[in-house]
Amino acid sequence: MTALTREQETELEAAAFRRLVAHLRERRDVQNIDLMNLAGFCRNCLSNWYREAAEEAGLPVSKDESREMIYGMPYEEWKNQHQKEASPVQKAAFEQNKPKD
Predict the structure, then answer these.
(1) How far, in Å, CA of 63 to CA of 100, rounded?
(2) How far is CA 89 from the centre of its chain?
(3) Could you please report the per-residue DSSP string of 50-81?
(4) Would you give the DSSP letter of residue 43?
(5) Where is this region: Disordered (predicted)?
(6) CA angle, 51 as apex, 58 and 11 as ends, to 5°?
(7) What does the pLDDT read at residue 2?
(8) Is 40:32 a contact under the CB 8 Å cutoff?
(9) Model confidence pLDDT, tens digit, residues 11-61
C-alpha cells in the first residue's frame, strides 16, 4: 500500500466512520444488544467515543448531541420507534459477554 500522509489517513478514517454510522442508521432492525453480544460495542458506545474525542479536542458536545449524531435523530425518538425489548436469550448472552470492569 502506498504510504499515506496523516491527512489522507484521517480523511479515510473519517469516511469509513461516516459509512459505518450511515449503515447503522439504515439497519434499524439490528438492536444495540445484538451489536454488544456480537461485537462488544453498540451505537451508544460510538456516541460515547465521539463525545470523548470532541472533549479531547476541547469541543463541548453533550451526551444527547453525540447520540443524535450517531442515531440521526434524538435518542428517545429512536428508542420509541425502533428499540425492542430484549429477549431472555439476548439478555443472557449480554450477561455472559459484557465487558468486565
Answers:
(1) 23
(2) 22
(3) HHHHHHHTT----HHHHHHHHHSS-HHHHHHH
(4) H
(5) 80-101
(6) 80
(7) 86
(8) no
(9) 999 999 999 999 999 999 999 999 999 999 999 999 999 999 999 999 999
Average pLDDT estimate for 84-99: 89
Query: What are the structural domains, with CATH classification, of the chain?
Result: 29-96 (1.10.3340.10)
**Alpha carbons 26 and 22: distance in angstroms, whole number:** 6
Residue type, 13: E
| C-beta of residue 33 within 8 angstroms of C-beta of residue 86 | yes
Angle at 15 between CA 14 and CA 17, to 5 degrees: 65
Residue-level pLDDT at 58: 97
